[in-house]
TrEMBL record:
Cofactor: pyridoxal 5'-phosphate
Any single biological process term in GO: [2Fe-2S] cluster assembly
Enzyme Commission numbers on file: 2.8.1.7
Record field: catalytic activity: (sulfur carrier)-H + L-cysteine = (sulfur carrier)-SH + L-alanine
InterPro entries: Aminotrans_V_dom (IPR000192), Aminotrans_V_PyrdxlP_BS (IPR020578), Cys_deSase_IscS (IPR010240), PyrdxlP-dep_Trfase (IPR015424), PyrdxlP-dep_Trfase_major (IPR015421), PyrdxlP-dep_Trfase_small (IPR015422)
One Pfam match: Aminotran_5
Cellular-component GO terms for this entry: L-cysteine desulfurase complex; mitochondrion; nucleus
Protein name per UniProt: cysteine desulfurase
A single GO molecular function term of this UniProt record: cysteine desulfurase activity
Function, in words: Catalyzes the removal of elemental sulfur from cysteine to produce alanine. It supplies the inorganic sulfur for iron-sulfur (Fe-S) clusters. Plays a role in both tRNA-processing and mitochondrial metabolism. Involved in the 2-thio-modification of both 5-carboxymethylaminomethyl-2-thiouridine in mitochondrial tRNAs and 5-methoxycarbonylmethyl-2-thiouridine (mcm5s2U) in cytoplasmic tRNAs.
Length: 511
């Protein structure tokens, strides 16, 4: 019979290190909230209560509750806590049904998940909010003639308000889309086509380290006759504001610079860019897929006119995102998808209420938990980074200060990144963006920072998130250090370095 770690709720969400040595779980704010989620499923659980269970959940929750309050300094009345006497085995049984749908507990042992930039796990609280809209509340939110429509519409509007609140916008300025890719396409092509008519405002400025969907949207506009400036970045990954100012022309209609880079986590000076664009009366779009919900964002303070948001990067569902489109001063767009005129005519098509509710709830939780999550992620990140950098010949890619801590990109000299990924099969990692992870090309982002091919090839991105634990970081540090050492020992280059030979002085024979 199994007993259960105190942080059962976090464990319930675990998609990672089952069966590995990283199976102790740290305490965290999310756990308390997750227990709420579990509480809400109590009636479901009671049907599946296991006869064998020994651990009383009440005791477990109380211990968790106490630790949570101590850690956060919150008062008990500020936090809703479950008070059930359900047993733990019933809670955790993968087959009995409890939390079955919120977890992958029956999938066997899986790698530790440290690829949070590619996607994040769905927060069980989000799933709870979504479920009714996939079952009984199935109305079309655009149906105006009956209650089915109204109830869906109400939920969609509440979700819109949550998103707006997270970024300091008005709900009317939030347009639901299928994800950040669509929001980026919609913003860049939409503004360019609307204002570029007649060829007067036919210039766009972006940067070389943008996500592929921004770069590709710009390329597309080049084919339609637009001119595009792809600003270089400095070796720390940040754009140079002076260069941006110099790149502005009378024909410039749009500047598109991302907030947080998905490969190296650097945070661009959005407020300064916004101020500059506003002073020149140029629209400013930012791809904030990796920033919203993780760092404080205020579209008004930052003078952002358009912003792309993605659901699955903030512990919400995949297949939904949003685009913030400023109303004052008004930004006009040529819509990409036309039809029924939904979403202020900017994005036709029936909304998916369950997805909208999902991204809305995810946004609400992000706002509520941001301070706590950010503290935890920063401390995990510092520990990881200090540990990695204490190994010889490792370097951080990107700026350490202007940096979102949940994204740690490190180069391990004399180790081939792909080999290291293979050697670290028990950890889900990536050497860069998910959409290019199949190619063995060195990252264009790292190349833009001036990294050599070798250095770019030897880099790994560690993505830390809301549910990452201390034990996982310990495990990862140990595993990385062991396997980097192992791979270096196989490398003839490493042998030369150990002998004190400067590799730059070697003349390699050409083939
Ligand atoms: C910076 C950035 N922009 C855009 C996207 C695309 O987002 P979505 O998957 O929602 O289309 C991603 C996701 O990989 C991203 O990291
Ligand atoms: S779509 Fe996410 S990294 Fe490319």
């Amino acid at each position: 019979m199994s007993t259960i770690a105190p942080s059962f709720a976090r464990q319930a969400l675990r998609v990672a290190s089952r069966g590995s040595s990283a199976s102790a779980f740290s305490r965290g704010a999310s756990r308390a909230a997750l227990t709420q989620c579990i509480n809400s499923r109590r009636s479901y659980v009671s049907e599946t209560k296991s006869a064998n269970a020994t651990v009383n959940l009440e005791t477990t929750i109380k211990a968790d509750q106490k630790a949570f309050l101590q850690e956060t300094g919150k008062r008990p009345e500020d936090v809703k806590m479950p008070t059930t006497g359900l047993d733990a085995d019933a809670m955790m049984s993968p087959t009995a049904g409890i939390l079955h749908h919120a977890t992958v507990m029956d999938q066997g042992s899986r790698p530790i998940y440290l690829d949070m930039q590619a996607t994040t796990p769905l927060d069980p609280r989000v799933l709870d909010a979504m479920l009714p809209y996939m079952t009984g509340l199935y109305g079309n939110p655009h149906s105006r003639t009956h209650a089915y429509g109204w109830e869906s519409e109400k939920a969609v509007e509440q979700a819109r308000a949550h998103l707006a609140e997270l970024i300091g916008a008005d709900p009317k300025e939030i347009i639901f889309t299928s994800g950040a890719t669509e929001s980026n396409n919609m913003s860049i092509k939409g503004v360019a086509r609307f204002y570029g008519r007649g060829g007067k405002k036919n210039h766009i400025i972006t940067s070389q380290t943008e996500h592929k969907c921004v770069l590709d949207s710009c390329r597309h506009m080049q084919e339609e006759g637009f001119k595009v400036t792809y600003l270089p970045v400095q070796s720390n990954g940040l754009i140079d504001l002076k260069q941006l100012e110099e790149a502005i022309r009378p024909e410039t209609c749009l500047v598109s610079i991302m907030t947080v880079n998905n490969e190296i986590g650097v945070v661009q000076p959005i407020e300064e860019i916004g101020r500059l664009c506003r002073s020149k009366k140029i629209f400013f779009h930012t791809d904030a897929a990796q920033a919203v919900g993780k760092i404080p964002i205020d579209v008004n303070k930052m003078n952002v006119d358009l912003m792309s948001i993605s659901g699955h990067k903030i512990y919400g569902p995949k297949g939904i995102g949003a685009c913030y489109v400023r109303r004052r001063p008004r930004v006009r767009l040529d819509p990409i998808i036309t039809g029924g005129g939904q979403e202020r005519g900017l994005r036709s098509g029936t909304l998916a209420p369950h997805l909208a509710v999902g991204i809305g709830e995810a946004a609400r939780i992000c706002k509520e938990d941001m301070e706590y999550d950010s503290k935890r992620i920063t401390s995990l990140s510092n520990r990881l980074l200090d540990g990695l950098l204490s190994m010889e010949h490792t370097t951080l890619n990107g700026d350490r200060e202007r940096h979102y801590p949940g994204c740690v990109n490190v180069s391990f000299a004399y180790v081939e990144g792909e080999s290291l990924l293979m050697a670290l099969k028990d950890i889900a990692l990536s050497s860069g963006s998910a959409c290019t992870s199949a190619s063995l090309e060195p990252s264009y982002v790292l190349r833009a920072l001036g990294s050599s091919d070798e250095s770019a090839h030897s880099s790994i991105r560690f993505g830390i998130g809301r549910f990452t634990t201390d034990a996982e970081i310990d495990y990862v540090l140990k595993a990385v250090s062991e396997r980097v050492t192992f791979l270096r020992e196989l490398s003839p280059l490493w042998e030369l370095v150990q002998e004190g030979i400067d590799l730059n002085t070697i003349e390699w024979s050409q083939h």
